[in-house]
DNA sequence: TACTTTTGTTTGATATTAGAACATAAAATT
DNA sequence: AATTTTATGTTCTAATATCAAACAAAAGTA
């Protein structure tokens, strides 16, 4: 099914370079040339040339010539994309209000193949172990936002995408592919979706789509909280109306844009 | 002054590919192959190969095969960097409190050469002058955060960096290089800095550094507002203490990390 | 210290990629 | 509809990039 690409139309050095950038993460903030070579599966010679190139371009820095790390300049890459989403900035204040009112986290995401990708996030809790920040990817099939985003797609396209998805069973509550497909009809009708510990035990969330002035769904927004504080009933009886209210305000603000 | 790099240690296809990603921005959300070639100064053949490569890797998409645009996957690149800054997520709730309390914007940034780069931002106003989002770069010499960040550097290194900087006169209030250098001593002593319409007429801000447990400055945080609402006196008499209070809390939270 | 292992650098043969020129297709203009 | 203009796709040789392997330099270890 994957579109074939002619070998001569593929720039492998670019792929390798991007892989090197992605190789840096929380647990690999600093790496030597050899670390990178191992992690990205390159020869050391190749890893070296790529790192020197990235360093020369200012995406990577090295204090001592041994340990390399990314510079803030890599943000310019990711944020080339975000700057194309003006509604994101616009929605942020409303998301803050919402998070504050209900004292739970509020997030916005878009779909990228079988994952949702966070494009904005507001959390109120200080405890917050580690970061589901902007750019984080989660499997669409187990999240409330994934459900509303898939439900809003052209049914044919959605079916195709779902066909390729893996439906990993992340918790005992994660839906099977068949259950998911059936459930999607409900989501389409009601206009919102819930994930009840389908992604992770202890996490519940409810999501709505956000539409542009033409009615096209451009993102999803959700409220999520810990099951110990948030019952299923809370989600539907208390949070849904708050969420809908903010969505309405965001969509209204979107008209004058 | 620029470090020389041997030609054989530079991967030009990687540079070109990164330039292509950066070519997409708010005013160029969608581009044809030829648009890209023109903007990045590539041959069409080359632009084509790079776009097909990026598409194959999922960083770029094209609905019709003509117009290309970035996908959320490019966020993974920037996210590689942000995930290496755990203090960022940790500080966000405090920044939200601060922005809420004083009803003005609050931002966090780090230095990248002669620019500051936003790594977190909270704004309360809905009116939105539009997006100084994460990843935005501003010239360090005209910003309060740039001042505290430069003031916290090793003086030799700072001097070297300042020597290379251009000190563009963005408003009549922008400091000259000499005035800036002198002013930096004051900033070093007092531990905070102001920018009074030095970046843009009508914008005032005050900034403090944030230090890790070893006392090393890892970022700057500021409050900024419009001159019509925020006087210079407000900044020092009202906002400085609020800012310091949050910085203290953030630094305290940083200890248990 | 000397020995071993790991890491970084260089080199020359092979494979990939770029650019120029040309071919085709689509859009715009008449 | 025909013509012109512009954009896109293809091909082929020159220029680049890769690999493997040898070499050099550090960093560990005994």
Q: What tags apply to this protein structure?
A:
257 residues, 45% helix, alpha+beta, DNA-binding, 9 helices, homodimer, Beta-Lactamase, 9 strands, Arc Repressor Mutant, subunit A
What is the correct CATH architecture of the largest domain in chain A? 2-Layer Sandwich
- The structural domain count of chain A equals 2
If strands are numbered along the chain, what order do they take across the biggest sheet of chain A? 6-5-4-9-8-7
Q: How many helical elements of chain A?
A: 9
Protein name (chains A, B): IclR family transcriptional regulator
GO biological process, one term (chains A, B): negative regulation of DNA-templated transcription
Domain HTH iclR-type (chains A, B): 11-72
Pfam families (chains A, B): HTH_IclR, IclR_C
Structure characterization notes:
2 copies of one chain form a homodimer. Chain A has 9 helices and 9 strands. In chain A, the strands form 2 sheets. Chain A has a 6-stranded antiparallel beta sheet, with helices on both faces. The model of chain A has no long low-confidence stretch (mean pLDDT 91). Chain A is an alpha+beta fold. Chain A folds into 2 domains: 68 residues, Arc Repressor Mutant, subunit A; 171 residues, Beta-Lactamase (2-Layer Sandwich). In chain A, strand 4 and strand 5 form a beta hairpin. Chains A and B meet through helix 1, helix 3, helix 4, helix 5 and strand 5 of A and helix 1, helix 3, helix 4, helix 5 and strand 5 of B. Chain A binds a DNA duplex (30 and 30 nucleotides) through helix 3.
